[in-house]
Amino acid sequence: MTGRGRGCCVLRSSKKNPDQIDGFAGTGGKPVVKGDFAIVKWPASPSESDSGPRQEKALLQEQLQVLEQQKHQIQEKIGRLETGHRLVAVVLREKCAGCGICADVCSEHAIEVSKQASVNPDLCLGCGRCIPECPNDAIILLLEKCR
User: What pLDDT, on a 0 to 100 scale, did the predictor assign at position 1?
Assistant: First the structure.
């Protein structure tokens, strides 16, 4: 980049509380576009930051890697939709302790917990945010035919 360039960083937002992204981005991170992903602009040119060319190159390579992963995920999702399938979270009842962590991280409020967690497939986006949060590995994603 030459001159006063701008870079961008893609952050995953929380639909439950999207304003948390603003706090993370800070005043130098405005503007923020909210949605499933948030695009945050920040100074990326050596003239605007303290980093040298090596640090800037490393930063840009990291950004590219994130974007490539997201591109792959989006292409997979498009492929599933074209074949009439989608991913849905399913709770393995024999493993679920009913802690509710999964419900707390679900941006679509698709998970309810009484004694155990249960997923409303009509609300579930199949994003998988709940899976790494479950301390008992009680949630999996299944491919189901779109209704």
Answer: 39
Give the number of C-alpha atoms closer than 13 A to the C-alpha of residue 70, restricted to the C-beta side: 14
User: Which CATH architecture does the domain made up of 85-145 adopt?
Assistant: 2-Layer Sandwich (3.30)
Binned at pLDDT 50, 70 and 90, residue 20 comes out as: very low
DSSP the chain: --SS-EEEEEEE--SS-THHHHHHH-GGG--EE-SSEEEEEEE-STTTSS--HHHHHHHHHHHHHHHHHHHHHHHHHHHHHHTTEEEEEEE-TTT-----HHHHH-TT--EEESSSEEE-TTT-----THHHH-TT--EEEEEEE--
pTM of the entire predicted model: 0.51
Q: Where are the domains of the chain?
A: 6-82, 85-145
